[in-house]
């Protein structure tokens, strides 16, 4: 628990909101879970030995020596013995006589699981890091304390005036800001899809169909079903160790190894399979939503008006959006997530009046009609 308690810093509340819920699922939820999994796999003292091998007697070969050798040089399974009858033909799926079965599938990935999980966590945080660099605390500086529900009137009016002055002076200057955010959202989608194929390569092409096979496995008859997870994460494997015999000849030790660590690995990767699929779908929906906002300007009005109830003041929002670019709308949308709703309504009204004064009083009157 002491190891996992250090992860609580990932969930600290931020003073300002600069992204959406799906974005936070990438860098906050997913990265934290992957780091926790990496800690879990490496914490050998809490889960016992990661490998136990059965070989000759301790007098002939020390047990720790065989375990260490097989862990370092990897173990293997016999694919042709995966579906043979247990207890009759083979003692366990994938474990058979090496002389009768020449085919072998080596398993070396379990030595690298903790490092790969940590690398994945870093990759999930990179888009967030880039967005923070591009954002440059702009939203935090624009809020000016207007996220507090109670403020002195003089302070509120001053902060509101400064914010409106900024929005008017920088009209049409926020497109780069919006483009940077979209780029980071695209990175999130590319990252999660790319990591699915990264894990598939890491696990020897077994990951992309892993979740589907497990789902199918749960519906099979109990007497006939065959656990597909042992293909990817075998719990019992074989290991060959060569030693010198008493007469100086080379003797082969055909050992059988139990991998308790794979009980954890198989659960970790079945969770990752389902989570990555859900995350990829959500990320794709977010990108589709962004495309709608870019090519259908009317949807921007609907989104902002629904986010903060403007009641009879929607004409002010209509005026603003008719004069603003999509980058300006994005700033206003982010402000709606950070500024108190009552103050936000006043900001919209003041900004509309300022813009109407710049372009002529007839525009606002026509929109009100």
Note the topology:
Elements (H helix, E strand, L loop, with lengths): L1 H4 L15 H22 L1 H4 L4 E3 L8 H11 L1 E3 L27 E3 L5 H23 L2 H6 L9 H17 L5 H28 L7 H9 L10 H4 L3 E9 L5 E9 L2 H35 L2 H10 L6 H10 L2 H13 L2 H19 L1 H8 L1
Antiparallel strand pairs: 1-5, 2-3, 4-5
Helix pairs in contact: 2-5, 2-11, 5-8, 7-15, 8-11, 8-14, 12-13, 12-14, 13-15, 13-16, 15-16
Structure characteristics:
369 residues; mainly alpha; three-stranded antiparallel sheet; two-stranded antiparallel ribbon; 16 helices; 60% helix
Question: Care to describe what's here?
Answer:
The protein has 369 residues and is mainly alpha-helical. The protein has helices spanning 2-5, 21-42, 44-47, 63-73, 113-135, 138-143, 153-169, 175-202, 210-218, 229-232, 261-295, 298-307, 314-323, 326-338, 341-359, 361-368; strands at 52-54, 75-77, 105-107, 236-244, 250-258. Strand 4 and strand 5 form a beta hairpin. The protein is elongated. The chain starts with a helix and ends with a helix. Residues 359-369 have low confidence and may be disordered. It is a multi-pass membrane protein. This is Innexin. It holds the Pfam family Innexin.
Q: What is the residue-averaged pLDDT?
A: 82
Give a quick account of the main beta sheet: strands, pairing sense, barrel closure.
3 strands, antiparallel
Oligomer: single chain
Strand order of the largest sheet: 1-5-4
Query: How many runs of DSSP E, i.e. beta strands?
Result: 5
Stretches where pLDDT is under 50 for at least 5 consecutive residues are 359-369
SSE order, as H and E? HHHEHEEHHHHHHEEHHHHHH
Q: Which percent range describes the beta-strand content?
A: 5-15%
Taking the alpha carbons of the first and last residues, their distance comes to 63 Å
Helical proportion, percent range: 55-70%
CA-based shape: elongated
Radius of gyration: 30 Å
> What structural class is derived from the secondary structure elements?
mainly alpha
Q: How many separate helices?
A: 16
Organism: Larinioides sclopetarius
Membrane topology: Multi-pass membrane protein
Function: Structural component of the gap junctions.
Transmembrane segments: 109-131, 268-292
């Amino acid at each position: 628990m002491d190891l996992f308690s250090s992860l609580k810093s990932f969930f600290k509340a931020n003073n300002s909101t600069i992204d959406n819920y799906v974005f936070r699922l990438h860098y906050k939820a997913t990265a934290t879970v992957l780091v926790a999994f990496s800690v879990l796999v490496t914490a050998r003292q809490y889960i016992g030995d990661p490998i136990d091998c059965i070989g000759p007697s301790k007098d002939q070969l020390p047990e720790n020596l065989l375990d260490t050798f097989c862990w370092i040089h990897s173990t293997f399974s016999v694919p042709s013995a995966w579906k043979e009858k247990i207890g009759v033909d083979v003692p366990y799926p994938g474990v058979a006589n090496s002389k009768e079965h020449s085919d072998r599938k080596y398993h070396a990935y379990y030595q690298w699981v903790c490092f790969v999980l940590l690398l994945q966590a870093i990759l999930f945080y990179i888009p967030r890091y880039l967005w923070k660099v591009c954002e440059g605390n702009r939203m935090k500086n624009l809020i000016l304390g207007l996220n507090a529900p109670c403020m002195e009137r003089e302070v509120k009016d001053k902060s509101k005036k400064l914010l409106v002055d900024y929005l008017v002076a920088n009209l049409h200057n926020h497109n780069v800001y919006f483009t940077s955010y979209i780029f980071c959202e695209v990175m999130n989608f590319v990252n999660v899809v790319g990591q699915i194929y990264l894990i598939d390569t890491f696990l020897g092409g077994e990951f992309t169909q892993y979740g589907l096979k497990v789902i199918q496995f749960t519906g099979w008859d109990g007497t006939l079903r065959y656990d597909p997870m042992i293909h990817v994460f075998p719990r019992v494997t074989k290991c060959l160790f060569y030693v010198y015999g008493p007469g100086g000849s080379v003797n082969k030790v055909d050992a059988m190894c139990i991998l308790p660590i794979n009980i954890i690995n198989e659960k970790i990767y079945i969770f990752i399979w389902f989570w990555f699929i859900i995350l990829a779908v959500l990320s794709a929906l977010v990108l589709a939503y962004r495309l709608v906002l870019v090519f259908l300007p009317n949807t921007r009005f609907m989104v902002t008006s629904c986010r903060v109830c403007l009641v009879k003041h929607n004409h002010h929002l209509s005026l603003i959006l008719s004069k603003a670019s999509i980058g300006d709308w994005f700033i206003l949308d982010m402000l709606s997530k950070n500024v108190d709703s009552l103050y936000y309504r006043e900001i919209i009204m003041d900004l509309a009046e300022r813009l109407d004064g710049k372009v002529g009083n007839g525009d606002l009157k026509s929109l009100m009609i």
